[in-house]
Design brief:
alpha+beta, 3 domains, 5-stranded antiparallel beta sheet, Spore_Ger, membrane, Spore germination protein, transmembrane
Length: about 500
């Protein structure tokens, strides 16, 4: 046994119980939820120990843990005629471990404190420079329910929640294979947030996985509070308007991504699952596409592609045609447009800018307001503002229709962050259309095409399947959705030496 007069080492558990208690009390000073329970054991209860935990993080019943710990010593008590000393306790636990519950034995004081902060129960025993740690978090989380952002008619109706272990369990329940790997680490000196990333061994590209691990290894000192904090660390172009990762709250979507060779990231305390790399064609797919019949799913895909074009180009196209190229508009329609714009004091660009500003303002107000009144305010506000703008001769009816169709089209896209990209790109295109007409639109489209052609995500081209062109893949699962019987196959398992 070590000399009990040795000085206390900063990161080691002291052999003296009083020193350990003093350090705990100093570290958790002014923490009202710290619970420190002293214990005595031995034939005459002459030996001391104490358990410490945070009752706001730990489930109740810590007393049973202490009793269970010493119940493990029953064979030892029988052999010693009930004479139990700290020397025998330390020798017993270091040699045989603990069997009653799944604990850990640590000699690092810093790690013991981290276990307390993670919702564990830590037991200090006088005369022993180790501690016994039980992981027993007791934070209440919401039950698994339907997804809020990805509701479907057919298919599973469960979603991930804020508990990391529950989310991993949901994923493993759907993908029962030893090839599904989950690796975890903790990030942040203050938040100490657990981050887990998963992949399907043999399906994921080794180079993509290596690039991902290189990027994710740089965040171990950062305070990561949500999955979205990781997006800018994983994307290649930070200032690109196009999203380079996907998000989901559906376990079936995450498992489908794993089967396709994607990497998923989960963070404790947030229900969102990050999927990377996110490629352009994948932002047009939704989970319900694979639960519907082929013909309907293919029609919906065409509708989404049309919505993408409308959300990106309709306002700028209207500005270019009405300002620079009226000869391209049918005569009857042109006369109707001129009639509605007769007393409008603004050019088409300013008119579109005002109405787009009002629409974006209403959209943000609807999101921030409480749910019961948010949708009502958005609908009523859009009707009132639109009608008032027409009567006040600030905007023409055709412009209200154009802006409304543009907003509706952006909502038709299954991935919200792609809609945000279109909202950003819409205004530069409107400016180019107002200054150079159709030629300005060509410049804008060319710039967008050039940008996405050069964009790569974890080494994978953003326009994969489109550039280089893969007609089979486009017909199979982009422009069309092939029959499910052609899609149901397991990913190829790569040899371990690759």
């Amino acid at each position: 046994m070590e000399d009990r007069n040795l000085p206390v080492t900063s990161d080691l558990v002291s052999i003296r119980l009083t020193d350990n208690r003093q350090r705990i009390e100093e570290l958790f000073q002014h923490c009202h939820d710290l619970k420190l329970q002293p214990w005595n054991y031995g034939s005459g209860l002459e030996h001391s120990a104490f358990s410490v935990y945070l009752d706001t993080l730990t489930d109740s019943g810590q007393e049973s843990y202490m009793k269970a710990t010493f119940r493990d010593l029953s064979p030892l008590l029988a052999g010693l005629d009930a004479r139990l000393t700290p020397e025998e306790v330390s020798r017993y636990f270091e040699g045989r471990g603990i069997t009653t519950h799944p604990p850990s034995v640590l000699n690092s004081f810093e790690r013991a404190v981290k276990q307390i902060l993670r919702g564990g129960i830590v037991i200090f025993i006088d005369g022993w420079d180790h501690v016994i740690c039980y992981e027993m978090p007791g934070i209440q989380t919401r039950a698994v329910s339907e997804p809020v952002t990805e509701s479907v008619v057919f298919g599973p109706h469960n979603s991930t929640i804020e508990d990391l272990h529950t989310n991993i369990g949901l994923l493993r329940n759907l993908l029962r294979t030893t090839r599904l790997k989950f690796e975890s680490f903790y990030s942040g000196a203050e938040s100490d947030r657990q981050i887990v990333y998963g992949y399907l061994e043999g399906a994921v590209d080794p180079q993509t996985l290596a690039d991902f691990k290189t990027k994710i290894s740089r965040i171990d000192k950062l305070e990561i509070l949500d999955t979205s904090y990781l997006e800018e660390w994983l994307e290649e172009s930070t200032f690109s308007p196009f999203p380079q990762v996907r998000y989901t709250e559906r376990p079936d979507v995450a498992n489908a991504a794993l089967l396709e060779g994607k990497i998923i990231v989960l963070v404790q305390g947030t229900p969102s699952i990050l999927i990377c790399p996110g490629l352009f064609v994948e932002f047009f797919t939704a989970s319900e596409d694979y639960y519907q019949r082929t013909i309907y799913a293919s029609l919906v895909r065409w509708l989404r592609i049309a919505a993408f074009v409308i959300a990106l180009t309709l306002p700028s196209l209207y500005i270019a045609l009405s300002t620079f190229h009226p000869e391209l508009i049918p005569t009857v329609l042109l006369l109707a447009i001129l009639d509605t714009r007769e007393k409008i004091p603004f050019p088409a660009f300013v008119e579109a800018l005002i109405m787009e500003f009002f629409f974006e303002l209403l959209r943000e107000a609807g999101i921030r307001l409480p749910r019961p009144i948010g949708s009502a305010v958005s609908i009523v506000g859009a009707l009132v503002v639109g009608q008032a703008a027409i009567q006040a001769k600030i905007s023409s009816p055709i412009m209200v229709i154009v802006v409304a169709l543009t907003g509706i089209a952006s909502f038709a896209l299954p991935q919200y962050n792609l809609g945000i990209a279109l909202r950003i790109l819409r205004f530069p295109l409107m400016l180019l259309a107002a200054t150079l007409g159709g030629f300005g639109l060509m410049i804008g489209y060319f710039w967008i095409l050039l940008h996405v052609s050069k964009l790569r995500v974890l080494g994978v081209p953003y326009l994969s399947s489109l550039m280089p062109l893969q007609p089979g893949q486009l017909v199979r699962d982009f422009i069309f959705r092939a029959p499910v019987k052609l899609l149901m196959r397991s990913p190829r398992k790569r040899p371990y030496h690759e």
